[in-house]
Write a structure and sequence with these properties.
Chains B, E: Keywords: ATP-binding, Nucleotide-binding, Sugar transport, Transport. Chains B, E: Belongs to the ABC transporter superfamily. The complex is a heteropentamer, with 1 copy of chain A, 2 copies of chain B and 2 copies of chain C. Chain A is an alpha/beta fold. Chain A contains 9 helices and 12 strands. By secondary structure, chain B is α/β, with parallel strands linked by helices. The radius of gyration of chain B is 19 Å and the shape is globular. Classes of the chains: A alpha/beta, B alpha/beta, C mainly alpha. Chains C and D meet through α5, α11 and α13 of C and α5, α11 and α13 of D.
Chain lengths: 293, 260, 358, 358, 260
């Protein structure tokens, strides 16, 4: 079977693992041909890729949506061409009205920031803090994961349990380690006392860690949280710099999406929604994740 | 000063001065031009002749001084205003659009249109082409293909297009900065004819030229610039080439006042 | 020797030996590209790029592919029309992609429905104000207003402060992207009304693109506006001394570019049924590349809308051709860069040959 | 009136009335910006932007801030040096950001350690080949080689095929980004050796940036190379007729730009201890903006490295100032755009005043 | 044809032809220049004079025809090669770098350096400034501030810089395309002096000019172009202004062969 895959972007660590999970899976099967395209974070490009797949007559399409609210048009395009469609990693807005030959495999983004922030909150309490000041490093502001994870932080801090946490400032690093490093250094130059950094992703968390280390700050005295559980992050956690991150089963999602697509291509029925849960990673359970992502 | 609006003075400058950084290119120029008069401006290279023209036509803003034109004091904000007030100029650097063809250049800024739809007016291309051919015939220049862009014209062809443009549109004052410098024998003769026609029609003109014969042939009065100053202002009848040269070179000095 | 003497005479001129229109080269590049894809397809894949090889579909050509080739470049193509006239005047517009983003966000928030599947629209910006289910003219006018405003700022900056267009529009690029993100604090805006969704449905983007292209080709060729664009791009000083109102003209040029970007935003968000702050990133570069591939000179004064349309088609063929060849996505970008350069090299090479040989 | 006759005489010339160097305007913009931040800080936050207000640190100035202002622009600044000389020759380089990305990936894969925390390095590209823990000179040379190659392709395309630099470097931009993604198939490359990590540590990026700036300021002012850059940018035809070997010179210019981008990549990946395919996105625009803010004319022939350094500092002050004021992230981009434009407007305005008043 | 390397012919063209699209700008030009000879080229605007020069100096590539220079057939790839072979040219469009100052323009492409470090050689700025002043004095032009950029020079000042450049460097053939067109009375006299000095030194020269007096003053032979063709080739002694004009205008036709 010919399967067309449109990924939101290629130069994203997490999505790369997901994509490779899919490719690995396909290699093990005979007669499965994957064609993976890079939408370069452009909704319109992605929609056009689906139409190009249709013009090439693929048997099924897997989409890792750039923008989960743009999926209606994609579902329509695939339905018009009578080609099965599977969304992966990001939950489409039209999830409840998907046609029969469409499905999605995703995680609930609302969990990631929540798990992260709750762990940070727990660590503060463990250290006996009555008051904790944190900096928040956001991802790209036009990205929904960044918006959602930031909202998760606000939501957790709004609960009475963690209301002792105060956000000094939140700024964006555009997911980028260098920008996070510069941002953190700028914050350090204000001389404000702070107890932790909550970042929307691991790269930003690592950037902040590097900046703090350059300023000779004792990493034991600060709590740093990230999301993604990348190899770099796990190494940073082993080194005692990073305190919390959140694992999302990228490879599992990729493989699951391919499975669903193949079944739909054969005309079989599959579940409309498959949730793959996020998992919190701490020094305590890190060994479980070292070989993943 | 006398009420300028009642006299027959077309253009008058007082103390016109222009500095570029430390370069004093033009210093206190007092100049008058009367109705129907043709005045020549001569002078060394770098004497400030073109600078003088650029101040009058507001291509640059003067450092100080005043200008009266057509009966009232003027402070043009730019060359457009000068042109709208009635000053047509052939600049030394020609001011042609290299990528446009000859008719487009001739009518640049005052295209003939079929319908008026503001900026989106439809051009009357046929008319402009015909009118261009007619205008160029007057300058005797030969241009093999009018649709070629100005970029591909010879030096003299470019100059003739610029002159044809100035001569085609009615105006109150014509200024020509070395119009025949690049022209051949025939073309020069034709352009001189054009200037004579203007004289007959009573249109005033300022002619900048290094050509002594031409100046004595065409003009009533000669103004000499030297080192940014007007050093002589002489009626043609009261002077000769030798005299002018000595003012240009500085052999004679002191502002020579007009006899008449 | 059949020689005629044109214009007002002079050296002999052979009217039969006309020079090719510059667009011809670009068209040639397009044809070469299509033939290459067709050949590779036939030889290596046993499939055809342009022709129909499926039994379940009728027709000589692979119509789905012909459509997507032009459909996928229609939106950037609309921007490229505006960018073309900007470049012809000797300017550049880096802000068009960001204007698309900001305009899509703002316009879409006036095109939302009140209820989705029976529930209140979760993404509606102005639900509280009741500004939902508005007639389609409202978001379109809002978009045009946004584009006009952005273009006005660009144009006024360039015309009055005389800063380089590169900087003025770079500033607008950063600012408009900021506005796009700020408008809904990064949230996408979705669920438009059916009438708004109709704008970008099916082949509508293509129709809008081609109509605008024809309109502007006529404007650039036959109107005073077009003539002045070329004059300013060719020699701004000359144009000024000739009495063209440079400032007004430039403002108009950038306003038109802004409005075209805004129209592109309307079509884009309608086609995708959503608006998000990241929309239109890098569109400005694609639009400029389309224009330049189409023969528009970046130093101003030369080019045409027809050329830009062909440039856009080259882009479309490249994108579809890659998918057709199932080229690994990693190689696609590399090859795309090479093809962009190749198309311009071919054009340049033919022009030089002509200039040298005469 | 003290007037002296300079040069070979002519109209009177007042040597005392010298014109300001163009860089002065830019420096003024920088000072104004700093003063604004200082004032806003004092009035609204009760804090100082530049001066030390902390009791636990000694010194008059807030040294941490002074450092970060320049540190955070050092890497783009290195690129901007190369871009400045490209623009002075009348060209443009859109590929520098992508060259950073591709070079960082390739160089970093030769700078990796074999074991991390006792385990084999999970990210090592050449673990199998045993190319780990190599001396620092290897990745640096590899990087320079990459930059040289990219610059050579840019330069050769521009010099020999005569396509516009915008297109040649746009092609390289797309291609090099493709290479960056393809090199490790999207995976980041991390865990460099300590000696490699030392390159970007602490204030090293600043030292590298400023040394290169001084070197190139001297080259542009005092050598034949610099003179020819200005000549070509000023009038390429004239330069050609004067016997300057345009093709060779242009290739050299783009090669130098490529190498500087590669050095920036080394510093960047060393500073961040990782290389990622997305590194350097948009750096080219920032670098160009720094140059233009610093008074480099996009039409070529005018500008200086000093100006570009001041332009870079303006960027640094903006970024740090925003964080200092705790400006909402959504507004930052909008305001950044406005400030970029404002800096250039100020420069242009002063130049015009000078030209008009004389 | 005879073995050119043994004769005293410096430059020879045979059937030199150039077309721009359909424009036949130059048709089968046969031209010879002997050692120490000064030849004038005259002709209408657009007659093909500058085109002729551009083919010889390889600013453009000819459509057909052959060129011999200094004893051998040449096919220069560009103006650099022509210059390196020993042809110095003052082009009609001057070829100056607008943003550079006067010394930089004068020495453009052959800067004097202190140390040789390849492209990164350090310039000897003092020397070049001094040499520039000396060269400009020969042309009599006045330039108030040598550090001003060429952009800010008057038309004549620019022309003098271009002439000074050509006259400063030794060469085997000098070509000047309307060198005195923009010059004042004094400057013209000086440039004519420079040309006379070249004559005395035996350096051959091709002078394009529209100025009949100048041509008869300075040159040994006059070649007339008309509509892209050479229509006359006359020794100064065998002709006069009237005669030349009739060739230029086409009143006399047929290629007038050289008597001597
Ligand atoms: N923009 C400028 N900046 C600085 N100096 C300038 C500028 N424009 C002109 N100058 C100087 O002012 C002086 C007068 O120049 P102008 O062009 O008026 O001379 P001109 O009399 O027209 O000479 P020509 O006969 O050669 O055309 C010259 O020395 C010139 O170098
Ligand atoms: N690049 C070009 N493309 C097309 N036509 C050209 C080009 N260059 C010159 N021509 C035409 O060739 C003819 C000869 O031009 P050329 O410049 O040789 O004239 P010229 O004799 O030097 O005239 P002038 O005395 O005005 O300088 C002119 O008709 C001109 O329009
Ligand atoms: Mg002058
Ligand atoms: Mg000529």
């Amino acid at each position: 079977a010919k399967i067309g895959v449109s990924m939101a972007k290629f130069d994203d660590n997490f999505l790369t693992v997901l994509r490779n999970g899919m490719i690995e899976q396909a290699k093990g099967m005979s007669g499965v041909e994957l064609q993976v395209e890079d939408a370069q974070n452009d909704v319109a490009k992605q929609l056009d890729q689906i139409k190009n797949f249709a013009a090439s007559g693929v048997d099924a399409i897997i989409v890792n949506p750039v923008d989960t609210s743009a999926t209606q048009a994609m579902s329509d395009a695939a339905a018009a061409a009578k080609i099965p469609l599977v969304y992966v990693n990001r939950q489409p807005v039209n999830v409840d009205t998907l046609p029969d030959n469409q499905a999605f495999v995703a995680s609930n983004e609302a969990d990631s920031g929540t798990l992260e922030t709750k762990e940070v909150c727990r660590l503060f309490k463990e250290a006996g803090k009555k008051e904790a000041n944190v900096y928040v490093i956001m991802g790209e502001l036009s990205n929904q994961a960044a918006v959602q994870r930031t909202k998760d932080i606000d939501d957790v801090i709004a609960t009475p349990d963690c209301s002792f946490i105060k956000i000094i400032d939140k700024q964006t690093s555009n997911w980028d380690r260098d920008q996070a490093q510069n941002l953190m250094t700028n914050w350090l130059s204000t001389g404000k006392k702070f107890d932790g950094v909550i970042a929307n992703n691991d790269e930003s968390a690592i950037g902040a860690i590097q900046a703090m280390k350059a300023a000779n700050i004792d990493m034991k005295s600060v709590v740093v949280g990230g999301v993604d559980a990348t190899q770099d992050a796990l190494a940073a956690m082993q080194a005692g710099d990073l305190d919390a991150t959140v694992f999302q089963d990228a490879a599992g999602q990729g493989a699951g999406a391919l499975d669903a697509a193949l079944k739909l291509a054969k005309g079989e029925k599959v579940e409309h929604k498959v949730y793959v849960p996020f998992q919190l990673v701490t020094p305590a359970n890190i060994d479980k994740f070292l070989k993943k992502n | 000063m006398p009420d300028i609006s009642t006299t027959d003075i077309v253009l008058k400058t007082e103390n016109l001065t222009k500095r570029y950084g430390g370069v004093h290119a033009l210093e206190g120029a007092n100049f008058e031009l009367r109705k129907g008069e043709h005045v020549a401006i001569m002078g060394d290279n770098g004497a400030g002749k073109s600078t003088f023209v650029r101040q009058i036509t507001a291509v640059e803003q003067r450092t100080s001084g005043q200008v009266w034109f057509d009966g009232k004091e003027v402070n043009f904000a730019g060359p457009i205003e000068a042109r709208e007030a009635g000053i047509e100029t052939v600049f030394q650097n020609l001011a042609l659009a290299d990528d446009l063809d000859v008719p487009s250049n001739l009518f640049l800024g005052r295209e003939k249109v079929l319908f008026n739809l503001g900026p989106f007016s439809i051009l009357d291309r046929k008319y402009m082409r015909k009118a261009t051919e007619a205008a160029l015939v007057r300058t005797a220049v030969k241009i093999p293909n009018l649709s070629n862009t100005i970029r591909h014209m010879s030096g003299g062809q470019r100059q003739c297009v610029a002159i044809a443009r100035t001569a085609t549109f009615a105006s109150k004052l014509i200024i020509m900065d070395e119009p025949t410098a690049a022209l051949g024998v025939q073309e020069t003769a034709q352009v001189e004819n054009i200037i004579r026609t203007l004289k007959d029609n009573g249109e005033p003109l300022i002619l900048i030229s290094h050509n002594m014969r031409q100046v004595f042939d065409l003009c009533d009065r000669i103004v000499v610039f030297r080192r940014g100053r007007i050093v002589a202002n002489l009626r043609k009848e009261n002077t000769d080439g030798q005299d002018i040269v000595s003012y240009i070179t500085g052999a004679k000095t002191g502002e020579a006042e007009l006899a008449a | 020797m059949a020689q005629t003497s044109h214009g007002v005479g002079g050296v002999s001129y052979d009217a039969r030996k006309r020079t090719w229109p510059a667009e011809f080269n670009v068209f040639l590049a397009l044809v070469i590209l299509v033939v290459i894809f067709e050949l590779i397809g036939r030889v290596f894949l046993g499939d055809s790029f342009l022709f129909n090889t499926r039994s379940d579909v009728s027709g000589l050509f692979n119509e789905a592919r012909l459509q997507i080739i032009i459909l996928q470049v229609s939106i950037v193509g609309i921007i490229a029309i505006g960018v073309t006239q900007v470049i012809i005047t000797g300017g550049i517009d880096l802000s068009s992609g960001s204007i698309v983003g900001a305009t899509a966000m703002i316009a879409m928030s006036f095109a939302q429905v009140a209820t989705v599947n029976g529930n209140p629209n979760p993404k509606a910006m102005f639900l509280a104000q009741g500004w939902t289910d508005l007639p389609v003219i409202v978001p379109v006018l809002v978009a045009i207003g946004c584009g006009l405003l952005a273009g006005l700022v660009n144009g006024a900056l360039i015309a009055y402060t005389r800063i380089p267009p590169f900087i003025a529009t770079l500033g607008m690029m950063v600012t408009a992207r900021g506005i796009a993100k700020w408008w809904s604090k990064g949230q996408p805006i979705s669920f438009p009304t059916d009438s708004f969704a109709a704008i970008g449905k099916g082949l509508m983007p293509v129709i809008i693109f081609l109509s605008l292209a024809v309109l502007f080709q006529l404007i650039m060729t036959y109107t005073r506006y077009g003539k002045h664009c070329y004059a300013i791009g060719s020699n701004e000083d000359a144009a000024r001394m000739s009495g063209i109102k440079i400032a007004n003209h430039k403002i108009l040029v950038y306003v038109i570019a802004g409005i075209l970007a805004a129209l592109a935003a309307v079509v884009l968000s309608s086609k995708n049924l959503t608006a998000q702050a990241g929309m239109g990133v890098m569109y400005e570069l694609d639009a400029i590349a389309m224009a330049v591939i189409g023969g528009v000179s970046l130093s101003g004064g030369r080019g045409s809308i027809i050329g830009t349309v062909i440039g856009a088609l080259i882009f479309g063929v490249i994108i579809s051709g890659f998918t057709f060849l199932r080229l690994d996505a990693y190689y696609q970008e590399m090859v795309k860069g090479v093809i962009i350069v190749g198309a311009v090299v071919l054009d340049q090479w033919r022009q030089r040959m002509r200039a040298l040989r005469g």
